[in-house]
Amino acid sequence: MKVKTICCIGAGYVGGPTMSVIAQKCPDIKVIVVDINQDRIDAWNHEDLSQIPVYEPGLDRVVAEARGRNLFFSTDVNSSIQEADMVFISVNTPTKTYGEGKGMAADLKWVELCARQIAEASKSDKIVVEKSTLPVRTAQAVKDILHNTGNGLKFQILSNPEFLAEGTAIPDLDNPDRVLIGGDDTPEGKEAIQALVDVYANWVPREKILTTNVWSSELSKLTANAFLAQRVSSINAISELCEATGANVEEVAKAIGTDSRIGPKFLKASVGFGGSCFQKDILNMVYISRSYQLNEVADYWEQVIKMNDHQKVRFAKKIIKNLYNTVSGKKIAFLGWAFKKDTNDTRESAAIYVADFLLSERANICVYDPKVPKEKVYADLDYLNTRFPEENRQLVQVATDPYEACKDAHAVAILTEWDEFKILDWGQIYELMLKPANVFDGRNILDGAEMNQLGFRFQAIGKSY
Ligand code: NAD
Ligand code: UGA
């Protein structure tokens, strides 16, 4: 079977870039990305490509090439499902905030709604592809809903998790380490797998397209994120040991990373990992493990999250300790709010939690981030519900210029590793700040010796100056 039309439900950080690249690489497939959020769809259709809702280097060029040719963004979910022979589910699967499994399990409300809508809208057989990250065995529930609607149609369910990282989504999609497709080991299942393999084979070498059973595919996605997050927590644990012993975490990372069995990537000590997925996916895995009474397995992975929480608190406490144990009424500049560079995404960003801790100590914070607007900073803080929204607006300012953010500050904290922070005029910033002028580099992007020479009191992660 040859796929002619793809519908993707969910025009977010995954659905948008993934489908744009599929449309770019497969000009003979029509790709319709649908969402219930009208503003988001309007933004994807915006004439000015700087207004598309996801900031990713290179994405604007891909959208410019394919949009209106074979790539469309729409809120007309039902007719797009009807038109498609393959439907991707790429909706959000956040941690549950209520009821059984609150704070741990994945909330599958949106996925289930999608399955029901596909069942209701379809007038012909379809291949349904789970693109969202889902707990192992979710495909069973999707299958159950689709096969019990009594419309007599046949649905094949595939799992095709996405491994792109934000900030590098386009190169990751252009040249993936692998594409993973899970499906049933039946003739119909195999045919569906082949149809999706053929889509990716338009640009991905065949040997990089792995096919497995559905459960292996679902679990591999959770496992990949758990391993990646574990590496960050492991190096962050070592960073604390480095600070206590006089070792340098970058030297240690290099020394171990040159061992080909360990490898050099994902060993950057930091203020803590953020992003919408690492924490959510590990919590989900912990929850599933406990539900099978695998308590040791659950405890093992939970520690990755505990270490990450500790790293964020440790950074905030270091700021307080160095400001003579009080930050009350003191201005602290935050350079960066996004959870990593080259994205406007702030979900679970370490900056939010460090800010919240300092605000509870009555600090005044002034944030500068090149891609995050003011409303987002306030929304992130309000969402925590730690204090009234008016208090957040009183204590937190958002600057549109880094020098303005640092003016009259007691301390500057670097929370995101934006390249532009490396080339700021730090001499000028020193002049603008109150003395002693403190810099806390939560991303190890600055040269401590140079900063000391300029007069700063400088602290980084896992190394001393
Ligand atoms: P997102 O919140 O950016 O986008 C999800 C979109 O789905 C939203 O725009 C929402 O309005 C829409 N939506 C929800 N229910 C809908 C419905 N019933 N009909 C139509 N639209 C609906 O989320 P995201 O970051 O794109 O993540 C999506 C999934 O991909 C998650 O499961 C996530 O774990 C996974 N994932 C994310 C990343 C990443 O880098 N963000 C990477 C790999 C996998
Ligand atoms: C991560 C995975 O890398 C993707 O493969 C996966 O598809 C995605 O999650 C997902 O499922 O959502 P992402 O969260 O976009 O991608 O970005 P990462 O580059 O993995 O960074 C995550 C966090 O870890 C960031 O806050 C980053 O600053 C931090 N990090 C990363 C470190 O502190 N040190 C490192 O060495 C690497």
UniProtKB/TrEMBL annotation:
Q: Which UniProt keywords apply?
A: NAD, Oxidoreductase
Name the domain of life: Bacteria
Q: Which residues form the UDP-glucose/GDP-mannose dehydrogenase C-terminal domain?
A: 333-448
Protein name per its UniProtKB record: UDP-glucose 6-dehydrogenase
EC identifiers of the protein: 1.1.1.22
Q: Which reaction does it catalyse?
A: UDP-alpha-D-glucose + 2 NAD(+) + H2O = UDP-alpha-D-glucuronate + 2 NADH + 3 H(+)
Q: Which InterPro entries does the entry link to?
A: 6-PGluconate_DH-like_C_sf (IPR008927), NAD(P)-bd_dom_sf (IPR036291), UDP-Glc/GDP-Man (IPR017476), UDP-Glc/GDP-Man_DH_C (IPR014027), UDP-Glc/GDP-Man_DH_C_sf (IPR036220), UDP-Glc/GDP-Man_DH_dimer (IPR014026), UDP-Glc/GDP-Man_DH_N (IPR001732), UDPglc_DH_euk (IPR028356)
Q: Which SMART domains match?
A: UDPG_MGDP_dh_C
Please name the PANTHER family in this protein's record.
UDP-GLUCOSE 6-DEHYDROGENASE, UDP-GLUCOSE DEHYDROGENASE/UDP-MANNAC DEHYDROGENASE
Xref: SUPFAM superfamilies: 6-phosphogluconate dehydrogenase C-terminal domain-like, NAD(P)-binding Rossmann-fold domains, UDP-glucose/GDP-mannose dehydrogenase C-terminal domain
Similarity comment: family membership: Belongs to the UDP-glucose/GDP-mannose dehydrogenase family.
To which pathway does this protein belong? Answer: Nucleotide-sugar biosynthesis; UDP-alpha-D-glucuronate biosynthesis; UDP-alpha-D-glucuronate from UDP-alpha-D-glucose: step 1/1
> Is this entry keyworded NAD?
yes
